[in-house]
Amino acid sequence: MALLSILEYPDKRLRTLASPVLENNDEIQKLISNMFETMYEAPGVGLAATQVNIHKRIITIDTSDNQKSPLVLINPEFEVIDSDSDNLQEGCLSIPGFYETLQRPKHIKVTALDKNFKGQQFEATGLLAVCIQHEIDHLNGILYVDHISRLKRSRIKSKLEKLHKQQ
């Protein structure tokens, strides 16, 4: 396994629309393993392939406290079951050091392929539901800062650009 480089906002590659995965092969399985290693090392609870500059519809997630509940979603989609919202603080490995409270539907139904390319369908609530929505946004070229005010987004962008220049 290998650690992958995580793109950081405002990198334009984060805005790329990810393509569906059409076949399961060694390259996809290696990518999934590398994504988990990268996500755990960062540390984070979710990672979209877009964030590591691979524009395929693959997400890795583990919201457990002990890294014992890995979840792979290939070509994921969701529908809202309950339009009531949760207000949870979100951060992002591509926007390090910044957190914002966002409002997202708190109960969703997810359809995706698993690591073995088997269809799966399940309901998600709480942190898992928020994480899935956040990562699917990445696959669609959307970042959590797109859900906050223009002023806050501009401040975050300026601070990260300044930080990148110093490195």
Model description:
The structure is a single chain. Helix content is 28%, strand content 33%. The mean pLDDT is 95. It has helices at 26-41, 126-139, 150-166, and strands spanning 46-48, 58-61, 71-92, 95-113, 119-125. A hairpin with a 5-residue loop joins strand 4 and strand 5 (119-125). The protein is an alpha+beta fold and 167 residues long. Strands 1-2-3-4-5 form a 5-stranded antiparallel beta sheet. It starts with 25 loop residues before the first helix and ends with a helix. It is built from 3 helices and 5 strands, in the order H-E-E-E-E-E-H-H.
CA radius of gyration is: 15 Å
Calculate the terminal CA-CA distance, rounded to whole Å.
27 Å
Find the structural class using helix and strand composition: alpha+beta
Mean pLDDT: 95
- Percent of residues in helices comes to 25-40%
User: Percent of residues in beta strands?
Assistant: 25-35%
Tell me how many strands there are. 5
Q: Helical segment tally? A: 3
Question: Reading side by side through the largest sheet, how are the strands ordered?
Answer: 1-2-3-4-5
Topology order in helix (H) and strand (E) letters: HEEEEEHH
Summarize the main sheet: 5 strands, antiparallel
Shape: globular
Spans with pLDDT under 50 lasting ≥5 residues?
none
